[in-house]
Structures are given as C-alpha cells and as structure tokens.
Amino acid sequence: MPVSKTARLALVLVALASLSACANTIRGMGRDTANAVDATQGAGRDVNQAAQ
Hints:
Keywords: Lipoprotein, Signal. The protein has 1 helix and no strands. Helices cover 90% and strands 0% of the residues.
C-alpha cells in the first residue's frame, strides 16, 4: 500500500518536532548541570571561608 505525499510530509514534520524537543531538553539539562556545579563550588568556598 503506497504512502501518500501528505502522510510522508506529516511524518517528517513530526520527526523534526520531536528532534527539536530533544535538543531543548538536552540544552536545559546542560544548564541545570552547570548551575549545580556553580552552586557546589560556591558552597565549598563558603565552607572554606568559615573554617578559616
């Protein structure tokens, strides 16, 4: 059973939308990880200063 051009186009658009959603999620995870590292380093500096 042949697939119509409209169905193929719809499938491609759905695939592209899914991939863009993944890219946004991965970018957000990177930002969250960077923020966690910054917070951990800041806490370490605070503890170091309190110990001196």
